Every structure is written in structure tokens, then in C-alpha cells.
């Protein structure tokens, strides 16, 4: 005698046609809410970033009397360009810009060349303990610059490097080198090995491979590294203030001290005009090359 047991069908949640119509509407509402929140956050970030620049530019066009007697955050009641003329007359602004340009270009040259070659040797050529060498480079990212000031000052004094361009270029390049090696090696990691193997089969040596394959592919990464480091090098104060002793080699951050008069009085409107002049080159370069910079960061983080 056999017994048959009825198998109950799996329970399912039945939805009515009205509920089915409401589900897409809820998703649309959530999506619209997320878009609205994202737009609000982006707008706030833009305001926080743009407002100081706009205020700086407007203040540089205000008269001294208007800035001193009125609200410093108010709109100017009268516009003038005398502040820019006084900015060049009060300090050696042109010479300061030239010095900052020399230091920035020199430091970036060392950062790019040494970073590319080190990353190429570590990631592409490979050698024993290459991972250890890369780890040592990365440890340099967490080393604070302040601990090197006194030893560097003593060493520079003994080899007559104080008050020279190299006294600023060497530490600026050295402390930026670990991040440069990391970005270049991360990018080289995703270049197909078959590319290098094909070049080797054709008889290309490591120098030719570097010059004809690796270097052209690294253009966006180079732009990224140069832009990121240029901001910090252009605005560097600590190394310039420590190793520069004469007015002829003062960079922009040191040159702005010339606008402080007797008893600590500051010509604020001329100072703001000088700051506007000095940040304009960086802003223009960043606006022109920002797409290459973003692509370089993405290439180094994801794929080549």
C-alpha cells in the first residue's frame, strides 16, 4: 500500500498590478533624490573652492581706503588697478616669479627623470629584491620634511650649497620622488608584457625600449606628476626660508614678506594683487591640462 503526499507549491508573494506600477515610481523617486543630493554636494564643494579665489580677485581690485574702512568681505565700491602696479613696485615680484619658475622646473625635471628610471628598473626590468626597493621608496612618503632641515643645512654649509637654486631643488625633488616612483610603477604594471617581449625579439635593448615604448606611453602620467608637484613646489616656504639667505634668490612665498611694512603693517590690497599674479600661471596650466591629469591618475590606478 503506497501513500501519496501532496507537495505544496512554493509560496510566492503576489503583487497586484497597482503595486507593480508603484515600484518603478519608487525607484525613480530614489534616483531623483540621489541626483539631487549629489548636485547639492557638488554645488557646495564648488562654492567652497571658487569663493576664496573670487574674493581674492575682487579684493585685489579694491582701493586701500575701501578695504580698510569697509567690510573686508563686501563687494568693492570702487575698482582700481593701482594695487597691481604697487605690487611690482613694492617688492621684487618679477624676480620672485623667475626664481620660483627655475626651482619648479628644475625639481620637476629631477622628479620625472629619476622617478621614471627607478620605476622602469623596478617594474619592467626587474631584479632581485626589487619589491623591497619599491617598499623602501614608499616608506619615504611618510617621512616628514622637518626632520631633514637641520642635517641638510649642515651639509649644505660644508659643501657651499647654501643660498643656491640646488639647495631648494634637491630636497623638493627628493621628498616628491617616492610618490613619483609609485605612480610610474603602478602605470608600468599594466603595460602588457608582450609589448616588451616583441621589442626584445626585434633586437631592442632596455634603453631603446624605454625611449620608444615606455616614455611615449607615460605622457599622461608625467603631466599628472608635474601638475601635482608643481603646486607644492611653487608654494614651498619651508625649504626656501631655511636655505635662501639673499634677496636675489627669494621665491614667491618669501617675496610676499616684502609687503609687510614697519611695525607689522601690511599693504593688504597690494599683497592680494601679488597673490593673484602668482597663482594665475598655475590655474591656467591646470585648466588646460586637467583632462590629461585625470587620465594619468586613472591610468596609474586602474589600467594602462
From TrEMBL:
This is Carbohydrate ABC transporter permease. GO terms for biological process: transmembrane transport. Residues 1-16 have a biased composition (Polar residues). Belongs to the binding-protein-dependent transport system permease family. Its main location: membrane. The keyword Cell membrane applies. The keyword Signal does not apply. Residues 97-289 form the ABC transmembrane type-1 domain. It is a multi-pass membrane protein. One of its GO terms (cellular component) is plasma membrane. It is found in: Cell membrane. SUPFAM superfamilies: MetI-like. The chain crosses the membrane at residues 36-58, 97-120, 132-154, 166-188, 209-234, 268-289. InterPro entries: BP-dep_ABC_trans_perm, MetI-like, MetI-like_sf. PROSITE patterns: ABC_TM1. Keywords: Cell membrane, Membrane, Transmembrane, Transmembrane helix, Transport. Residues 1-24 are annotated as: Disordered.
Amino acid at each position: 500500500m503506497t501513500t501519496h503526499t501532496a507537495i505544496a507549491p512554493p509560496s510566492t508573494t503576489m503583487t497586484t498590478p497597482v503595486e507593480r506600477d508603484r515600484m518603478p515610481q519608487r525607484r525613480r523617486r530614489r534616483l531623483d533624490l540621489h541626483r539631487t543630493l549629489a548636485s547639492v554636494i557638488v554645488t557646495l564643494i564648488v562654492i567652497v573652492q571658487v569663493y576664496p579665489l573670487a574674493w581674492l580677485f575682487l579684493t585685489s581690485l579694491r582701493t586701500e581706503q575701501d578695504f580698510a574702512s569697509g567690510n573686508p568681505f563686501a563687494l568693492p565700491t570702487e575698482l582700481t588697478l593701482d594695487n597691481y602696479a604697487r605690487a611690482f613696485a613694492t617688492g621684487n615680484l618679477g624676480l620672485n616669479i623667475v626664481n620660483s619658475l627655475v626651482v619648479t622646473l628644475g625639481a620637476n625635471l629631477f622628479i620625472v627623470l629619476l622617478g621614471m628610471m627607478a620605476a622602469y628598473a623596478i617594474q619592467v626590468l626587474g631584479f632581485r629584491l626589487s619589491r623591497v626597493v619599491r617598499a623602501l621608496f614608499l616608506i619615504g612618503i611618510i617621512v616628514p620634511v622637518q626632520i631633514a632641515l637641520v642635517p641638510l643645512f649642515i651639509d649644505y654649509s660644508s659643501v657651499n650649497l647654501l643660498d643656491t637654486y640646488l639647495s631648494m631643488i634637491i630636497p623638493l625633488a627628493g621628498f616628491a620622488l617616492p610618490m613619483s616612483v609609485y605612480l610610474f610603477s603602478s602605470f608600468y604594471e599594466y603595460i602588457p608584457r608582450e609589448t616588451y617581449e616583441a621589442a626584445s625579439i626585434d633586437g631592442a635593448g632596455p634603453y631603446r625600449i624605454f625611449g620608444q615604448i615606455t616614455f611615449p606611453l607615460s605622457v599622461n602620467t608625467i603631466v599628472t606628476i608635474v601638475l601635482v608637484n608643481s603646486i607644492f613646489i611653487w608654494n614651498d616656504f619651508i625649504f626656501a626660508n631655511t636655505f635662501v639667505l639673499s634677496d636675489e634668490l627669494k621665491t614667491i612665498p618669501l617675496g610676499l614678506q616684502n609687503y609687510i611694512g614697519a611695525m607689522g603693517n601690511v599693504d593688504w590690497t597690494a599683497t592680494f594683487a601679488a597673490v593673484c599674479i602668482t597663482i594665475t600661471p598655475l590655474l591656467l596650466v591646470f585648466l588646460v591640462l586637467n583632462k590629461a591629469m585625470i587620465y594619468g591618475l586613472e591610468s596609474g590606478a586602474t589600467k594602462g
